Fold this sequence. Notes:
Blueprint: E1 4-8, E2 12-16, E3 19-23, H1 25-35, E4 39-47, H2 50-61, E5 69-72, E6 78-83, E7 91-94, H3 107-114, E8 118-122, H4 129-138, E9 144-148, H5 158-165, E10 170-174, H6 175-185, H7 191-201, E11 206-210, E12 216-220, E13 223-227, H8 240-253, H9 258-273
Parallel strand pairs: 1-4, 1-8, 2-6, 4-5, 8-9, 9-10, 10-11
Antiparallel strand pairs: 2-3, 6-7, 11-12, 12-13
Amino acid sequence: MKHKVVVFGEMLWDCLPSGAVPGGAPMNVALNLHQLGLNSRLISSVGNDSDGQQLLEFLDSFSLPVDLIQINQDYETSKVLVNDEDPVNIKYTIVSPVAWDFIVWNPEMDKAVASSDALVFGTLGVRNTESLNTLLKLLHHKTLRVFDVNFRPPFYDFEVIENLLGYTDILKINEDELVIFADYFDIDHEVEKVCAYLDQHFPMDLICVTLGSKGALLYKDGKTIQHKGYKVQVADSIGAGDAFLSGFIKVYLEEQSLGKALDFACKLGAFVASKKGGTPKYGIGDL
């Protein structure tokens, strides 16, 4: 039986100089999981506009279910202005407020999370109180809860983040976000020390740290597993971290070793970084 994963948060148009492309970390994760053979569903919202309709059609082109995506009559579909002059360090300007700031809880999404093997969530999708309250209701279900930090300044609040960490089983964070955590908690910037602090103060089981071109590492029970990553010609870094997380979740839910999960995550992240855009179409045989 396919593993079921529900992803909560933003879906949007990344408006690059070359044109607009579908994006948003949660949407990217849902699409990657779907292409990896899992039963994934996205909880989000679009406006009642042509941009929203085109996003739904884009998901339909992957055969990803859209039944948990709400259509908001009052707010437009999300857009992000992207500066990709440096393809390794993409810069974003995120329009606010938009439809996914107002995701409304309903029994259907609650049932979906209750019967899932994992729930994936981040910080951007809960920058507004209404969507945050919806997520907090869903986090009470005892599924595997995966927190993909995904900071997008200025849209994060450490009071909210500490609340979310209290529900986190697996934390995924990159090296820049790790420094922000270290500064906030007033601890040394060394990766292992930040992970040890988070592990001691919050109920998480596992921490994934992506290190860009240097690969990634896992921290569990005071021990680390490191991977040097796969060297590729980077087309752009959009969606690489989302692909990494998706690959990790797939293998982790299959109950394979953490080393195998980390290796596959790095492989998938590198593959997506070698392609333009955050959601290239592929099959397992392409990796």
